[in-house]
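Q: Predict the bound structure with 6-O-phosphoryl inosine monophosphate.
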Amino acid sequence: MPGIVLIGAQWGDEGKGKATDLIGTKVDYVARFNGGNNAGHTVVVGDESYALHLLPSGIISPTATPVIGNGVVVDPEVLFEEIDGLESRGVDCSRLLVSEGAHIIAPYHRVLDKVTERFLGKHKIGTTGRGIGPAYADKINRVGIRVHDLFNAEHLHDKVEASLHQKNQMLVKLYNRRPIDVNETTDELLRLGERLKPYVANTSLVLNKALDEGKTVLFEGGQATMLDVDHGTYPFVTSSNPTAGGACTGTGVGPTKISRVIGVSKAYVTRVGEGPFPTELFGEDGDWLRAQGHEYGVTTGRPRRCGWFDAVVNRYAAQVNGLTDIVLTKLDVLTGLKEIPLCVAYDVNGERRDDMPTDQAEFAVAKPIYESMPGWSEDISQIHDFNDLPKTCQDYVKRLEELSGCRISVIGTGPQRDHIIQINSLVD
Ligand code: GDP
Ligand code: IMO
Ligand code: MG
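A: Predicted complex:
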């Protein structure tokens, strides 16, 4: 029966793509449940590196069926570009299934994302500019376009008209832009729908049947816990629920079908875009981490903000996701440091806080309370047994595990598929 959820435990880019690929060959389905092409998941196989945005990372596995769930926002143009790019490299995408209930990112959502950010000025979120927020806003406002709407011209025209009515007023009167034409937009969406049709399915039914037949489904999260619209650092978040509960609402599978929740964490922390980040490093240490870890965004190419490991974040992630396992990635990046500071708690206006402050005004002024662990200098990328790691490296991992309150089952020691130390199986 097993339903396995895999999510980001920090602010994204933890290595979910690599972790999904690792499990991908052992599962029957890999389903994305949230976000859209704001995600950038890297999978490295031998000399080939794949940057995936909208497709589940399981697409690289020749045996798993990739699924885009109803909770995802789908930009069809981006989807086709990604499919064409992968097929030209010999990756078969014909098994892909797209939920008929998923919402569409239309061209006007991209426009609105950019103008809204500009309009926000110093209050901007630093979005990826892919139209994610405006598409989810339409979903919640009940003026969204769903995949199945693309197959009925009259119905679609009506929906586009309803959606653009207010937006055009805003574009013209507030943002000083040209209005968007309803007929042109409808025709464009109908054209995209034609190509999308063969992939479209009732994916909730497919996944539930699969689980009932004893097949294994991996639910792959985009973004991460601290970017969750409910549980993250609001308003500096994405517009979906990347936490484990999102796997159920975003695919139409009940929580009783989930037996495992895997959180992916870096051995340090990165963040892209605006918003508070207590352990952020601004000087040489931050530049060193960025260079060692190649910390540049897969989607926007922006340099990622870097900081030391934050155990408060990990404990919080373990709590709100109900984590059963942690995949700790990029441990190799810390090789060469004499001392490794790690944040065990916060100081908020002179008061020690071991738990995540929910008031963002408090989180914004939270100062890390550090503990320091001795580092190691040996190359660990070829090590496959935990006991062969340098003693100080083992101690660092054990301390992270203790502070996070969840077992570490896999350790990443490099970007390649075989750069791992497997402590516990993730699928049994
Ligand atoms: P995702 O968004 O969570 O899938 O992560 P990204 O793909 O955006 O960023 C993670 C980056 O780290 C990618 O370039 C991966 O190839 C790389 N990576 C993943 N695991 C490891 C690891 O254990 N060590 C190193 N050095 N790189 C890793
Ligand atoms: P993966 O799946 C890191 C961030 C953006 C911005 C905020 C809102 O690769 O971990 P959005 O475009 O979603 O409205 O932007 O969320 N963000 C990510 N940061 N990794 C991601 O995805 C992200 N997806 C969105 O930088 O701060
Ligand atoms: Mg990423």
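A: The pocket of guanosine-5'-diphosphate (ligand 1) is lined by residues 8, 12-18, 40-42, 44, 298, 329-330, 332-333, 412-415, 419 (CB under 6 Å).
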